Fold these 3 entries.
Entry 1:
Amino acid sequence: MADAGLFIGWGAPVYGREAKGLEVFNESLQYYGRLQQDAVIEGFETVILEPHGGDVAGFILIRGSEEKLAQLRVDDEFVRLSTRASLIVESLGVVGAALGDGLEGAITTYQQAVSDLT
């Protein structure tokens, strides 16, 4: 079971770059599919949000081990796709996440920080 994740969120497309945005989006989904097939990641889920006036238009949640996801973040292809995406959508963000068995460690770290500050 995955203990970590990568949340890749994005906002609205850059005006005039919508078609290129779809191209990079599809390229990214193919890449994540290959990563899953090669057991680099355990899986991923793609979410498109309905229009709501907020900053996030959609996201992909990639699931895997903390170690493999740390390596993925510096993988040349991952960095290339993230850089391309950042040029065609607003507010691209890649954020680490605790999932499954990783939640216990994240909660413990939070509890320790709260104790240190009280």
Entry 2:
Amino acid sequence: MEIILKQDVANLGHKDDIVTVKNGYARNYLIPMGYGTTANESAKKVLAENIKQRAHKEAKIKVDAEGFAKKIEGLKLTIGAKTSTTGKIFGSVNTIQIAEALSQKGFDVDRKLITINNDHVKEIGTYTAQIKLHRDVSVQIEFEVIPE
């Protein structure tokens, strides 16, 4: 079944993409949750017209995202965490702490746009995180976890 996505869905596609999914996934999850609609001929024509009208705005948003990416590209963050004597962190470092460290540097980034490359940061050391600013623009930043 073909679905037009109304918003970004992780591991499936971005807003206004036409994706093919299994019927049950579409009928039981995507459509009831408001993530997509069925892709019939009239909906495809409306989508094509909307994309055509929005192309200029999308180009400006992408340029702005690229400019923001250049500003934070070489940035290195330092995050303090409570640790044991062996260097293990009590808990873990998550995207909320990275977003707060970025806001202290003057860059407001939503925590939902940040993904940590290592699944769990549970020891002191240097790690990388990816910030997805636009569907085509993402930037890697490095952060160091130090004991408090």
Entry 3:
Amino acid sequence: MTRYNHLITDENRKWWTLGAMCFALFMIMLDNTVVNVALPSIQKDLGASISGLEWTINGYTLSFAVLLATGGRLGDIFGRRRMFLCGVVIFTLSSATAGFAGDATSLVVSRIVQGVGAALMMPATLSIITNAFPASERGKAMGMWAGVSALALAVGPVLGGFLTEHVSWRAIFYLNIPVAIGAVTAALFAVRESRDTSVGREVDFAGVATLTTGLTALILALVEGNGWGWGSPEIVALLAGAVLGLTAFVAIERRVKVPMVDFSLLSDRNFLGAVVVALIVSFAMLGVFFFLALYMQDVLGYSPLEAGVRFLPSTLMIVGVAPLAGRLSDRYGPRWLIAGGLTVVAASLYSFSGIAVDSGYLDLLPGFMLLGIGIAMTMSPMTSAAMNAVPVQKAGIASGVLSMFRMVGGSLGVAVTGAIFQARVGTSFETASPQQFVDALGFAMTVCAAVALIGALVGAVAIRAKKNNGEHLLTVEAAEANVNPGGSAVAAREAELETV
């Protein structure tokens, strides 16, 4: 199909490319939420245990989060379009096997493999978009990317509830197949191959092994900490293993010829600030979504589908505001959009701290809308700040690191808010009374609001203003443009740093 690429102009190509990446992103993000509402039906049909149901969710999250940085680096080495297509194929085949699963074990294995495919796809979507769009238009493109992500998160619970009630829980996995066909077709038609030409194609196997080990131990500890007990031998061993694995990873990366993660990226204040903001906004967002979903079902008595529908105002705000935030970021810079967005998120979370047992949905609606607006103001400027801070050559690993911080932040948010909840009520949420539930939830939301305010401060202090950032980007692109095809983009990066 690539022989027809000459039929589209460069201007059209970048929008076709964005469309292909958004197709794939929709599929990835949909699978973060669409399965939750189907869990009771899966349990009944497959006879799954509670642990099996938990790993239907956690298996996907774990493999996805752990392999994001690896997926980004493999795209830099072997080609981003190639890794993207490989990820789509893995994701689609594992979706089909999940739909055909005859027992809980087969379903969990399919979900873990789905996470592997998603980890190859997710960094590629950002790096391919970064390569397709000039720096002056990346904010707009990232805004659309973020809007599609939010739309998938919004549609997930509603679509999952509808298919489970009226078709079958298996249909939520079969749905990925036509979406994947559309993504592959568009990618073959429009996306140009790109890679990091500044390094060879050697794979840092020692780095992959230590990072995978360290992150697996960390994410597993965060996921299971509240259930197993934070002082249990298993969690202590996992946290110790995470420290040892990640420490070994850093030591290895400083010595190998071609490291999997270029730590010099973190020397750029925009990139470092953006990844910290990514961790914080995901911490706040997923923590509040998790416990408000429980509140609406366990206290207010909504069904899973009814609860999913009531999240729509928040996520639709993201869909509407994210593209606008991206355009404003292109024009005025990301700093104050990020700081302002996280301040709005903090105000929303603080409003949730006052909910009561007898609160109605109208009491929650302003907070939901503010939450969506604040997240939209933060996410696309944060993404464009990170991706504009690095040379296009390094887009794959940069997007992998950014996505990894988002996933770790989300797992940390659920774990920390859960620990706060249990500490306040002295029991689990399943056995807490409605009053105990809302008291603990209110305190957890106050803590999340404080974390969001810290993120606003990080955004204001760490992210460069528009003028300096623009000069930085122009210098990067000018330096890269002067590198001959056989030359080193590292030299361009050094030249750029000397002039900033």
